[in-house]
Fold:
Amino acid sequence: MPIRQLPPQLINQIAAGEVVERPASVVKELVENSFDAGAGSVEVDIEQGGSRLIRIRDNGCGIPRDELALALARHATSKIASLDDLERVASMGFRGEALPSISSVARLSLTSRTAGADAAWRILADGTEQGYDIQPAAHPPGTTLEVRDLFYNTPARRKFLKTEKTEFGHIETLLRRMALSRFETGFVLHHNQREVLNLKPAATDAGREKRLALVCGEEFLGNSLAVSYQASGLSLSGWVGLPTFSRGQADMQFFYVNGRLVRDKLVAHALRQAYHDVLYHGRQPVYVLYLELDPALVDVNAHPAKLEVRFREGRLVHDFLFSALHRCLADDRPGASVPESYESNETIRSVEAEPFLQAAADVETVATAPAYAPRRPPAQASLPLQVRETLSALQTLYAASHESTRVQVHQPPEDTAHPPLGQAIAHLHNIYILAETRNGLVLVDAHAAHERVTYEKLKRQFQAGSIASQRLLLPVRVRVTEAETELAEEHAADFEKLGLELSRSGLDTLLVRALPALLSAERAEQLVRDLLADLNQQGRSFRLEQALNQVLATMACHGSVRAQRRLTTAEMNALLREMEATENCGQCNHGRPTWIELGAKDLDRFFMRGQ
Structure:
């Protein structure tokens, strides 16, 4: 068959295969155009799941009459003009492919009016990029795009569409996610003439929190922490769910880079690592996060649908995200200060009492997490009280550095009668500590709480000194690829700092000659393979630290106060004070909640006081 030039419509239909997967793909491209037009409101009308009609109406800057035909031409755009512009893309769209691609597989109508124009103008397109008939129309300033009969001329692709309910579900989910990237923009969504979503522009903190609650649910708002972190020219803001507020699927993870919703493996890995030590196994964290950085440091031209990005300094971004979230989660403890925007909103971090009672009845329950209401900073004088349980393993490993298990909490003596977790008044069933606070009652799982306190103490002590390494009598031989052996040699010094000694034996073989003293030689081969896989994919690995932490977590679990062991009032108060000074004290090493609070309002509701 001879080589020949493809006709424009076929070229556009091929391009449509990359950017128009389903009706939701069309909505994404057109709403992003509205964002770039500076729209303050976007209305989306859908019929039959988008297969019959998709109408996007905005009040943006509009398109002049003499540019309407050009807007439907392939590779025509107002957003970039040179390679320098492409390397610093600040707009949502820039390829100039969306409209001609969509018009090649649907009946497209574009009506637009600029602010200073006397009238609007309408143009119809069929993907041929020729023979346009531009007609005057009645329309306010802004643009309306109608896409009818999607895939009418490509029936094979139409067969791949799911049910009307499923396709609309994708559109609604997409629009909710996009609404979180533009709080200043209002959104209205209709399906088959029925209003499904109506989000007013949110210019204030209260308005943004309201939209967040409408999109993610009130429970997320009540079980989240505000994030605000800047370093090395990077800025991270948004909300992260408490470790005890998690989900079985990764369906509530929204990450935006310079306002663009993306899915990125490097980002996902950094966030998983930040939650690694506090999340219940098999659960997924919840977050809505916004990363801002110089557009020149991120390549948004890495995916036809612009769903993926590449960072020019991937290691820097990874470490920044991990540090920011790890610090945010670790700093959340009883009595910690909260942002001003949270102080002024009574609905933030407040929950009903029923989930508390359920969690108290079954410590395995993690679906509903205890949320911490805003509290004053801790104000507790020194209490030289002692929790009598000690770790024999801790004494063996850290006798030199661990001077005493005596609890010393040094904080300003502003209010010794009302510390954040209150004063112990009973040990219920020899399991739960009941404490009275200024605003109500607190229930603490003594074993889970002491487990976290001990674990964090072990980690600090372990990290403070050099990691003990043990040489193996017989080196463990690990067969890997040639590239992995070179990677192991490159990072040999880093491994040695963690007590792992590797040497090369041939092109594709490594010898494990030493391991951290806490790890078993049986785990050596799999550990090395996992380490190298992480290094090859992400440029760094946390596998060794995680393996060591697992051992420390086991030690902490076995060395903590056991259920049914009766605690004295002094011991209970000492544990409460240590919790107030311990990172990640809201959950044990396995991700289960350690404490819950019943406020005075919750107690009043139980007994119908004031009703």
Notes: The chain has a mean pLDDT of 78.
